[in-house]
């Protein structure tokens, strides 16, 4: 099998690019160039003859990011039908661990920031895991780790993504408009039929028609009151496997090299408040603590319980130290957490900016912990392998 040499199809380089883009956004937001960049990001671009009138920042988070969710949905469908989650035996252990990785961060967040309704609404923010970033850190520091750790982390992160998608679709819908939503669902059905037709005939014109229907579907979802990225999820889930694989292969470099870094830059473009730590919003502290602590405790403890009750025919139990490594990697929320922070605190820009800073700090803390734990476990496995030889 030929291995692509394109670094944007790998795991390490896209993760590094994402981190650099976020750092650049945070840096420029706190320099004299802040105002002109902010003017560009807040400038509105409307599509004549439609209800679409979004700021540049929202075109990025609602439009460009839909491509990321399209690719994620294609991967979700593959893993659920032919991959690491295609049977109960494969799915039950990471599903239980993912449950802990969602519930415990929510509990930790609410203990810290749940006293006020204004900050309690941020409870979904620390539940996400950034697949690309977590796998990138694992690839950087995990040389020598058994493949089971990557498989477990991948399944865990995919289930986390499902939860995040549900949160976005259910919790952050507003002013629902039934007609555009119904028309969007009709467009999804047409897209599904076209993808089956493309799978059977391979005609290029059908692919163009799918692109047009996909854009129309996105526009209808955007004006329906449901977050526009859900359009990417729906289209990715219904697409026939062969066309879906080609779309994912074609979009992957652009998503990793352009879409996600641009979103990271825009999302991280926040001014660091001139406040003492005690003056920072509880939302900031809730996210900073819930991402690393909640994820490590939730994933490792629930994962350990899952290993104890696993059904016959399941994979061998993972050592608790490997579960700790997976939990630390799970605390790298980043992309989806940034989106959730924007959505949860959309009505309060000051708290939103502090929540975004919380995501960046919490994800960075998780990254450092994960790098240390993964490196130690990888070194242990390499030493074990050398001794056995």
TrEMBL record:
Q: Which GO terms describe its molecular function?
A: sodium:proton antiporter activity
Report which reactions are catalysed by this protein: Na(+)(in) + 2 H(+)(out) = Na(+)(out) + 2 H(+)(in)
Q: How does it sit in the membrane?
A: Multi-pass membrane protein
Compartmental location: Cell inner membrane; Cell membrane
GO cellular-component term (any): plasma membrane
Q: Which UniProt keywords apply?
A: Antiport, Cell membrane, Ion transport, Membrane, Sodium, Sodium transport, Transmembrane, Transmembrane helix, Transport
The main place the protein resides is: membrane
Q: Does the keyword Protein biosynthesis belong to this entry?
A: no
Q: Which residues cross the membrane?
A: 56-74, 95-114, 120-139, 151-172, 178-195, 257-276, 282-307, 319-343, 355-376
Q: Tell me the GO BP annotations in alphabetical order.
A: regulation of pH
Which Pfam families does the record cross-reference, listed alphabetically? Na_H_antiport_1
The keyword Transport appears for this protein: yes
What the entry lists under InterPro entries is as follows: Na/H_antiporter_dom_sf, NhaA
Family the UniProt entry places it in: Belongs to the NhaA Na(+)/H(+) (TC 2.A.33) antiporter family.
Describe its function.
Answer: Na(+)/H(+) antiporter that extrudes sodium in exchange for external protons.
What this protein is called in its record is: Na(+)/H(+) antiporter NhaA
Query: In which organism is this protein found?
Result: Microbacterium pseudoresistens
